[in-house]
Design goal:
It contains 10 helices and 2 strands. The longest helix is centred in the first third of the chain and has 66 residues. The chain is mainly alpha-helical. The chain has one domain. The N terminus is likely disordered.
């Protein structure tokens, strides 16, 4: 009898240990998914916009110092307009009450603003509150998409996003190099195959966008901060629902796609900001 009881106790102990181990493994995996989603959907857009904004600020500063304050509108006016249009579009998307949109302010010396979007929102609405996160970062995406479309229609060439989005695994360092090589090769190929008139138009428009459009102001990041906590909560809730309904695989694919697009936009933006800085430097000597 004692032997039988000991055997039962030993068997139950093994089963309990296995269950505990499975729980710990699944628990660790669950936490990893939540952390990964926060890194991809919160930290990645924030940091990429920060880096590009820093580069864009250098470009705008160089524009003012080398070509004069009015060059912000004469040269960078298109970038300012797309910048403000991004804020406005995302404000409408998240149901904010947009009271005033000024894509270009020709009297910027009096107010200090090249353009502006005034909007209000219901602080009781989680959707409108988290919308601030995207409204503040919007110019990073609208400027990137504008340059992408210019490259597609004027140079007849564009990046193959799906080549990287369809991957089910995360990027490694060598693949980051491949992404950057594709961006530069796409740019060079477009310049090689397009006619001179389209190349000139493209470079002018790209410089007008990149020289000012990517520079996010302190107020823009204050808007981002107003929505970041709500967005974090929503991401965590979505992560929990993903685990409950076993949607880890499609969510992983979606995360990888979003992350790759963010990196592509980051590298593309830096490339064109550098080009704008070089062209501004050349214009300053003419």
């Amino acid at each position: 009898m004692d032997i039988l009881l000991n055997h039962i106790w030993y068997t139950n102990s093994i089963e309990k240990n296995l269950k505990d181990r499975d729980f710990m493994v699944n628990g660790n995996s669950n936490w990893e998914l939540i952390v990964e989603m926060l890194l991809v959907f919160v930290l990645t857009p924030y940091l990429t916009a920060r880096v590009v904004s820093w580069a864009g600020h250098i470009s705008k500063k160089m524009l003012v110092e080398d070509l004069g304050p009015n060059s912000q509108l004469a040269v960078g006016g298109l970038g300012v307009a797309i910048h403000e249009l991004g804020h406005a579009a995302f404000a409408f998307l998240f149901h904010h009450k947009v009271t005033h949109v000024q894509l270009l302010n020709f009297h910027y010396a009096a107010t200090g603003n090249l353009g502006s979007v005034e909007h209000s929102w219901n602080q009781k609405s989680i959707y409108q509150r988290l919308g601030n996160f995207f409204i503040g970062l919007a110019p990073f995406y609208t400027c990137s998409m504008a340059i992408f479309l210019l490259q597609k229609f004027l140079l007849g060439n564009s990046l193959e996003f799906t080549k990287y989005i369809n991957q089910n695994s995360s990027l490694n360092l060598s693949e980051f190099g491949n992404v950057f090589n594709q961006i530069t090769n796409s740019f060079i190929t477009g310049l090689t195959n397009a006619s001179w008139i389209f190349i000139i138009i493209y470079l002018i428009l790209a410089v007008m966008i990149a020289s000012t459009g990517y520079d996010l102001s302190r107020e823009d990041f204050q808007t981002v901060n107003q929505g970041i906590l709500s967005w974090i909560v929503v991401v965590i809730v979505v992560a929990v629902l993903t685990l409950l309904f076993n949607f880890q695989v499609p969510m992983t694919v979606f995360m990888n796609g979003f992350f790759v697009l963010s990196i592509i936009f980051l590298m593309q933006a830096i490339l064109y900001v550098v080009i704008s800085i070089l062209l501004i430097g050349i214009l300053s000597f003419l």
